[in-house]
Amino acid sequence: MKKWVYMFKEGSADMRNLLGGKGANLAEMTNLGLPIPQGFTVTTEACTDYYNNGRQIRDEIKDQIFDALKQLEEIQGKKFGDPENPLLVSVRSGARVSMPGMMDTILNLGLNDVVVEGFAKKTNNPRFAYDSYRRFIQMFSDVVMEVPKSKFEEILDEAKEKKGVKADSDLDAEDLKEIVVKFKALYKAEKNADFPQDPKVQLMEAVKAVFRSWDNPRAIYYRRMNDIPGDWGTAVNVQAMVFGNMGNTSGTGVAFTRNPSTGEAKIYGEYLINAQGEDVVAGIRTPSPIDKLAEDMPEVYEEFIRIANLLENHYKDMQDMEFTIEDRKLYFLQTRNGKRTAQAALKIACDLVDEGKITKEEAIKRIDAKSLDQLLHPRFDDKALKEAKVIGKGLPASPGAAAGRVYFTAEDAKNHHDMGERVILVRLETSPEDIEGMHASEGILTVRGGMTSHAAVVARGMGTCCVSGCGDIVINEEENYFTLGGYTIKEGDYISLDGSTGNIYLGDIPTVDAEISGNFERIMKWADEIRTLKVRTNADNPVDAANAVKFGAEGIGLCRTEHMFFEAERIPKIRKMILSKSKEAREAALNELIPYQKGDFKAIYEVMEGRPVTIRFLDPPLHEFLPTDEGDIAALAKDMGLTVEEVKETCAALHEFNPMMGHRGCRLAVTYPEIARMQTRAVMEAAIEVKKEKGYDIVPEIMIPLVGDKKELAFVKQVVVETAEEVKKEMGSDIEYHVGTMIEIPRAALLADEIAEEAEFFSFGTNDLTQMTFGFSRDDAGKFLEDYYKNKIYEFDPFARLDQNGVGQLVKMAAEKGRATRPDLKLGICGEHGGDPSTIEFCHKVGLNYVSCSPFRVPIARLAAAQSALNNK
Amino acid sequence: MKKWVYMFKEGSADMRNLLGGKGANLAEMTNLGLPIPQGFTVTTEACTDYYNNGRQIRDEIKDQIFDALKQLEEIQGKKFGDPENPLLVSVRSGARVSMPGMMDTILNLGLNDVVVEGFAKKTNNPRFAYDSYRRFIQMFSDVVMEVPKSKFEEILDEAKEKKGVKADSDLDAEDLKEIVVKFKALYKAEKNADFPQDPKVQLMEAVKAVFRSWDNPRAIYYRRMNDIPGDWGTAVNVQAMVFGNMGNTSGTGVAFTRNPSTGEAKIYGEYLINAQGEDVVAGIRTPSPIDKLAEDMPEVYEEFIRIANLLENHYKDMQDMEFTIEDRKLYFLQTRNGKRTAQAALKIACDLVDEGKITKEEAIKRIDAKSLDQLLHPRFDDKALKEAKVIGKGLPASPGAAAGRVYFTAEDAKNHHDMGERVILVRLETSPEDIEGMHASEGILTVRGGMTSHAAVVARGMGTCCVSGCGDIVINEEENYFTLGGYTIKEGDYISLDGSTGNIYLGDIPTVDAEISGNFERIMKWADEIRTLKVRTNADNPVDAANAVKFGAEGIGLCRTEHMFFEAERIPKIRKMILSKSKEAREAALNELIPYQKGDFKAIYEVMEGRPVTIRFLDPPLHEFLPTDEGDIAALAKDMGLTVEEVKETCAALHEFNPMMGHRGCRLAVTYPEIARMQTRAVMEAAIEVKKEKGYDIVPEIMIPLVGDKKELAFVKQVVVETAEEVKKEMGSDIEYHVGTMIEIPRAALLADEIAEEAEFFSFGTNDLTQMTFGFSRDDAGKFLEDYYKNKIYEFDPFARLDQNGVGQLVKMAAEKGRATRPDLKLGICGEHGGDPSTIEFCHKVGLNYVSCSPFRVPIARLAAAQSALNNK
Question: What EC designation does it have (chains A, B) (predicted)?
């Protein structure tokens, strides 16, 4: 028979997957001989079985639970449900990884109308007994039976009001007895049944509630945000109660071995005299700092410090501990590696290394790479933020903090930026035409659009703060103001945005810039020594490129060339190209663009100082460059000497039903080889000139997007090579260059062996590859993905974290097939996934040479790459 | 050293891949001892080498050509370029399969200013010699050097006019000498060089021209239409000349051993006295029927008949032969299996079986499955067609012939159809709202849209004649008429459409219906005995289903359920469902739809008499059901008691950037399980009722579209199973049913092993799978695919023929993975590819259980399935 239940003494720290983190640590502490109220753990497998079994707990498991309960009775010398000498227990969830606040705790389980009387007698403390009972009824009703806690609070408040007192502690035994009667009546009214008096029923209902809680919407959301698989399940810990609410020689508290905000190596925590755990959390009474325990009960404090140090040394990490003092006797209820801020994580890791407790490698593994994001964007000055007024909230679309004057068009934003103002662009939604204005802005605020809207994606790429989808905003376009939260914000007024929380603030809050120094720098250096994966960045202008280099980027993995066309001076020229009726006219228009593109590339090459730069050729469908509103169309027609109808006809002819799957990428170069020719010329001339002027060893990497067939790549490559050789000849240069391709179409992955005959490198464009492989577009999927999360069909956003199971198969296949043809094929990834730690580990395992991500994720990628190397040694 | 050149006597019929069809047959005939002018063949590999070698013929090949030429000189006892006794040759292309008319022939090569003199002396026929020379100059200039033939014709015409004669034969030697001078002057003017006098140069230029011709646009197009790979290359046949233009005891002709139009077992052909091959083709003189040869030269005729019979018996197939008589001596210049109409193919195959010459299996293999299409649609009465007036031409979007009265809206078409009229629907372009009108029409004519437009795809599915993209049409919508080719066609006027040619005719041309009888029926019966692949049909109404059964369909592989919603009575109800604000309102609206869907399914189940029917649940995005024009929106708003703004808001909210990759397929059922519930109820109730009423053994197959994840299917399946069990219980039925899925998203193929845990069958939706795998949408790809064909990137339309190389990998993977999980998994294909013979062979090899295609392709699929079984024994 399978073992579904373990006594604490049967487990150990390495049984985390089976017993959950809490259960494993309780077992470990038991083995260490620490003062732990004993108990048992129902395994995570029992939880999985519950779900597979139509949400039923099978008898076998029930039997083992009651067997364990019997053992616990013997250990504690008490009996469950025995009024003479009752065993009371707590019931808590405990998954493999801590999911704080996801699932509630039930204390004092085992009390009923009879037992409470015996308990009062035995403890000689009727007030305490009835207080424990009313707490149990309240917690059980709320957590297990979904009777709202607030209704119980109302009864409690009434009783206090009636008696004219303020604190719960001012209620005496008789008051509490009356409250218990009312609580039970409320329960009966709500559930149409008596409050369960059988402790065994109470226990099994509580276990089921823990299992159920694994699938509540909060837990599902938390798992998605934290990459926790839904089939892990949670364990249940049943533990003998100890009581912090037995008087002034009792208490309960939470403490950390180091400061979780700053990392300072000093015990940090708080406790409450005469209280149960929930009181600390509830915040009704203000707890005292842990130091006060040294005054209140010095010998208990000393014991506490001894054990805290022992635990930190044992786990070799900062511990987050819960403890209870029952009549001067100290118990530990749990310990775990403490959550911490990124800043604290870095300091603690460095300190532990310096203290000789862990190695650099262990330090690297300890830090949550994702959390570094907090340190990589400007943030508000803490003091100023405390006084700031929140006027609304949108989605935290791109992290960081920004303050500036509000403008409502990209053009105004750009102009006022050029006049030296800090600006915030506020738009209904953004489109590619807004790029210049977005670039000029400190922050972007949109009324519509989700986390994957144009504004969000572009802003994240730029590292610009963005709050999207704030539907409460009403913009008045004629009079240039918007209203939000009862305030009217006019053009030119200051607001501040926090892209990490989605908060929108009134006024101009000062911000503090990110930099890599101190502990951060040390950790990054260690990471660089360990990792084998290179880290590049996605950047298409010198500012982003310089930023990325500052953050440690070793090259550019994706330099898009289309954003360059949206600038005010250039867009008329690209429109002219599109409206050209002949190849000759198109070439003439393109020739006008060469100096701009070349200038862009030169600036980037200069900033990159010889680091590799992969330049992707024109990708979006041409209609993205055309105007959509009547005025712009008329202006363009006039400018081009065409009728409005002619311009509209071209726009209509370029309209596509599914632009994502339309005439874009290398398909443009097949139809208009002259575009590829122009871009090749710009790249080669820029590279040769910078090489000559600065002496950098530049080897241009030209990347052809959206390839799905070897012949398609061969066709475009031929155009590129012909032009490149022409330029080399003209300029008397023998510069080397490489031509490669994106792998972003499923067919390219399937035929990677053939494509590698033509491609000198592959870069996985996992954004498009994800879209095509799943068959949904990022722009449209927002409408239904929530339903998928809700129904547990998907557990994470495949645009944020690579779907290793599905899309990953194509990446692996392409890597293997490509290398089979060309063993030295250089492989990289340049989708948004390139900055996601779990994807980075996948890339490491698949054998990619580098990942490329937005500048602000470069340090995350460096760390994640090092962790991948360590995890896969 | 590789052998690049083969003398005829060195080859044989089974060397077709190397020597091309013509070369292999010339070799075979040589071995049979038939009167063949000797020669040699430059291999197809030499052609491929030419392309791989930068369009150069390498010296090694050149050397082998001149070695072969030397051998030929010895055989013929003549010398190339020797004025005393010149060897003249013809140069012809010859690919593996015959590509009639793709590449031209050069005759009389080896003549120059000196040789022609000697030739005149030797033949004692200066007129003949100069006629041969002027023909050579003309052909060489045209075919090799691209000097337009017409310019030479002008000179010839001038000469005849000047002399006051009509026929070429009225020109004498002196006239021809003068013409030769003028021809050479023309050549020099055009090419800025003298006409090449060196016969070796002439020969090599001619060989190169043949190689080049393999890649001319006509050839590329022909290959694409006929599934011929571009890397096969063509061989070149160099053959000693014989002359049909040596006087009245000479001649040349073409003949078939049986009639290629009707299949009648009687020699069929024509010949010209005193002529070279080109004269027969050019049509300047009218050839005589082959019978006349019996009168003119009885002994030659007898010999001809003997050899023709010998060839047919040797190749066991109807032969298409070219012959020349040189001074009463008969030569065969080539033989090949003759092209034939579908009708002739069936008769010839049956006759050859009856004559004991071939087996039924061989007969099956002989017939081009695709060609059956000609027999499966109504066609115009031949006599009536001769008198008909073509007024315009569009794309041949869906084959068949149709005549009827013109109407300009789907509604008018429907109404007049209901009044008993035959109608032709004429639209700018069609949309899903037009479905009912399209169904009611005999034929559909659109101004916009290609071969893969909505009109074309839907019409092909229905087997309705359609001519699309006739851009010359100007529709006047207010006054209900259109103009085309100078004619004005008013509403109610008759026109006729030929969907196989794209021709648009004035008036009402009688049509003849298709039926399967006689030879066709015999062949189909044989095919059914041989094939292992089942053939189902795609049909979503009883009429199409009945048609398909008549054509031999063994079930329905794809019954779409959305078309049913577009009917006038129903669309308001589906719109009501879409505009519902609550689940309850949506359910109420859906309940109103149940009787309709159930009625549809009952009618289909009745027609199918117990044959399997796979019903696919709602697939398109909901916005397809909403009105787009202001009037309809206003009407809908009124109808629903909403404001116009509210309706517009819903429309706007449902707008998608890439609807193909949007909220559709099973994604709808995840968001609105009530839709799946309604459809399940309709299917189950219909099946149970028809089973009870008619006693058919119905096992409903419910197909969930667009699945990409096991959990997604599990979610929808649960809804289906719950509802189905509910209905079974209500109706007291124990009916079986199956739930399966489409495999049409790349991810579904990659994860087919997991998905098969939930799916009882897979049906490959290769339309969508092709779109997602290639990353282009069918609606948009038309804009650039032509460039892909032109540049030889793609050789065929991946929407017509399955891309076995890429998409096929996913199909194979899914089949293997699916069967690994569930060995009895039923596999089918229901994309448009299901009716394509080469795809059918692929499906056979991959181990699918059935293919499903439109009703009119069922016989093609039956035959192709039999051929696949034979080819893969």
Answer: 2.7.9.1
Is residue A109's pLDDT more than 60? yes
The verdict on a CB contact (< 8 Å) between A806 and B656 is no
- pLDDT, tens digit, 9 for 90 and up, residues B508-520: 999 987 888 899 9
**pLDDT, tens digit, 9 for 90 and up, residues B257-300:** 999 888 999 999 889 998 887 776 555 677 889 999 999 999 99
The residue among B619, B661, B785, B790 with the most chain A CBs within 10 A of its CB, best to mutate, is B661
Same domain, A558 and A680: yes
A658: nearest CB among B658, B709, B793:
B658
ipTM of the complex: 0.85
Nearest to A712 among B662, B771, B793 (CB): B793
d(CA A454, CA A437): 14
Chain A's closest residue to B786, CA to CA, is A671
- In terms of Cα–Cα distance, which of A811, A853, A814, A847 is closest to A831? A853
Cβ pair B780:A751 closer than 8 A: no
Per-residue pLDDT tens digits for B227-255:
788 889 999 999 999 999 888 899 999 89
Residues of B in Cβ contact (< 8 Å) with A706: 775
Write down which residue in A292, A321, A340 finishes a domain: A340
Region of residue A77 (phi > 0: left; psi between -120 and 50: alpha; otherwise: beta):
left
Domains in chain A, number: 3
Q: Is the pLDDT of residue B449 over 90?
A: no
Q: Report pLDDT digits (tens) over B71-102.
A: 999 999 999 999 999 999 999 999 998 876 66
The per-residue pLDDT for A542 is 94
- Residue A692, in any domain of the structure: yes
B744 labelled ligand-binding: yes
Q: Which residue of A has its CA nearest to B772?
A: A772
Quick check: B155 pLDDT over 90?
yes
Which is it for strands B511-512 and B534-538: parallel, antiparallel or unpaired? Answer: unpaired
Q: Same domain, yes or no, for A583 and A671?
A: yes
pTM over 0.90: no
CB contact under 8 A, B670 and A784: yes
Q: Residue range B855-862: average pLDDT?
A: 95
Measure the CA–CA gap between A533 and A554, rounded to whole angstroms.
11
Which residues of A are part of the catalytic machinery?
454, 830
**Closest Cβ–Cβ partner in B661, B715, B775 for A708:** B775
Whose structure tokens read 């916005």?
B623
Cα B209 from chain centroid?
A: 28
Write the residue in B670, B711, B746 that is nearest to A772 by C-beta. Answer: B746
Average pLDDT, chain B: 92
Interface contact B661-A775, CB threshold 8 A: yes
For residue B260, give its domain range: 242-340
For A330-385, the pLDDT digits (tens) are: 999 999 998 888 889 999 999 999 999 999 999 999 999 988 988 888 889 888 98
Same domain, A414 and A539: no
Please state which of the ranges A19-33, B201-215, B752-766, B775-789 shows the lowest mean pLDDT. B775-789
Q: Which tokens go with B739?
A: 């739930």
SS3 sequence, A723-787?
HHHHHHHHHCCCCCCEEEEEECCHHHHHCHHHHCCCCCEEEECHHHHHHHHHCCCHHHHHHHHHH
Model confidence band, residue A505 (pLDDT cutoffs 50, 70, 90): very high
Select from A532, A543, A663 the least CA-distant residue to A606: A543
Cβ A793–B667 below 8 Å, yes or no?
A: no
- B441 is a domain residue: yes
> Using H for helix, E for strand and C for coil, what is the string for B345-356?
HHHHHHHHHHCC
Smallest Cα distance from B100 to chain A, Å:
27
Is B324 one of the annotated binding-site residues? no
Rounded distance between C-alpha atoms, residue B340 and residue B348, angstroms: 9
